[in-house]
């Protein structure tokens, strides 16, 4: 039961810490307890800004920000569409930007396996807690089978502590959407293509693009998928 005692110590440390430096130490402790190479908490803010704690190298985190990789990172993009944890292998790595991102990440030691837990908080907050490792599929499946519930528990404890320590860092309240913007996002959310949405609303695809970009700006979203996720979480559209 040594592992369970270590898990309890992580949760107790999260309850007790009163500093951001303490959160960074806890992320490092998570890696030791679960025997994985990396752990990362990432809060994706409006306009693509980020707030994070983690064990990736500074070279990689700086490059991630400089390249605005959150716009193409399948982990971020994929988790906007999900409410449940996901193994990285189940995400879409086929688009060329995703493949290029993966190659860059691997060169920076991110790891060939990963598990991401989407977190949605107050006022449309969106964050991720991810764990990554270098191992074969069989070994990774054993890690996930053993620890997945604990990963989820730690992720939400961690986010709760971040919100407690950073009360001023809240997601921006979205501006009201126009009826056309609501219609466009709703139809996209239920699976219509852009061409089908334009046809249904009797508008051109160019006009539709204007509505979508306007809604994205109002919602502080980095892409259309994020805009839909924010609109749903804020109750601005119902699907």
Topology:
Blueprint (H helix, E strand, L loop, with lengths): L1 H15 L3 H15 L3 E7 L5 E5 L3 H9 L7 H7 L5 E2 L8 H12 L5 E8 L5 E8 L3 H29 L13 H11 L4 H8 L3 H15 L4 H10 L6
Antiparallel strand pairs: 1-2, 1-5, 3-4, 4-5
* Order of strands, widest sheet: 2-1-5-4-3
- The CATH topology of the largest domain: Beta-Lactamase
The rounded Rg comes to 19 Å
The CATH superfamily of the largest domain bears the name Transcription factor LuxR-like, autoinducer-binding domain
Oligomer: single chain
* Number of discrete helical segments: 10
Q: Tell me the major beta sheet.
A: 5 strands, antiparallel
Keywords: DNA-binding, Transcription, Transcription regulation
InterPro entries: Sig_transdc_resp-reg_C-effctor, TF_LuxR_autoind-bd_dom, TF_LuxR_autoind-bd_dom_sf, Tscrpt_reg_LuxR_C, WH-like_DNA-bd_sf
Organism: Leisingera aquaemixtae
Domain HTH luxR-type: 170-235
Short description:
The chain is α+β, with helices and mostly antiparallel strands. It has helices at 2-16, 20-34, 58-66, 74-80, 96-107, 137-165, 179-189, 194-201, 205-219, 224-233; strands spanning 38-44, 50-54, 86-87, 113-120, 126-133. The protein has two domains: 2-165, 2-Layer Sandwich (Beta-Lactamase), CATH 3.30.450.80; 179-233, Arc Repressor Mutant, subunit A.
Q: How would you sum up this structure, described in words?
A:
There is one protein chain. The protein is α+β, with helices and mostly antiparallel strands. It has 2 domains: 2-165, Transcription factor LuxR-like, autoinducer-binding domain (Beta-Lactamase), CATH 3.30.450; 179-233, Arc Repressor Mutant, subunit A. The protein has helices at 2-16, 20-34, 58-66, 74-80, 96-107, 137-165, 179-189, 194-201, 205-219, 224-233, and strands at residues 38-44, 50-54, 86-87, 113-120, 126-133. It has a 5-stranded antiparallel β-sheet with strand order 2-1-5-4-3. A hairpin with a 5-residue loop joins strand 4 (113-120) and strand 5 (126-133). Helix 1 (2-16) packs parallel to helix 6 (137-165), helix 7 (179-189) packs across helix 9 (205-219) and helix 9 packs across helix 10 (224-233). The longest helix is centred in the middle third of the chain and has 29 residues, at 137-165. The protein is globular, with a radius of gyration of 19 Å. The mean pLDDT is 88.
């Amino acid at each position: 039961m040594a592992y369970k005692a270590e898990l309890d110590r992580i949760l107790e440390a999260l309850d007790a810490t009163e500093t951001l430096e303490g959160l960074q130490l806890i992320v490092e402790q998570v890696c030791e307890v679960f025997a994985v190479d990396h752990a990362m908490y990432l809060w994706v803010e409006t306009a693509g800004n980020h707030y994070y704690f983690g064990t990736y190298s500074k070279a990689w985190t700086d490059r991630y920000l400089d390249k605005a990789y959150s716009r193409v990172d399948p982990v971020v993009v994929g988790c906007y569409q999900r409410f449940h944890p996901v193994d990285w292998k189940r995400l879409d790595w086929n688009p060329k930007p995703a493949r290029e991102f993966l190659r860059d990440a691997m060169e920076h030691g991110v790891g060939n396996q990963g598990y991401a837990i989407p977190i949605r908080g107050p006022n449309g907050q969106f964050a991720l807690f991810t764990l990554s490792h270098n191992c074969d599929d069989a070994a990774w499946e054993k890690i996930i089978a053993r620890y997945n519930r604990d990963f989820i528990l730690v992720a939400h404890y961690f986010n709760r502590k971040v919100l407690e320590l950073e009360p001023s860092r809240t997601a921006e309240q979205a501006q009201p959407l126009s009826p056309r913007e609501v219609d466009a996002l709703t139809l996209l959310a239920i699976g219509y293509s852009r061409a089908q949405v334009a046809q249904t609303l009797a508008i051109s695809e160019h006009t539709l693009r204007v509505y979508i970009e306007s809604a994205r700006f109002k919602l502080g979203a980095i892409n259309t998928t994020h805009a839909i996720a924010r609109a749903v979480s804020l109750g601005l559209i119902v699907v």
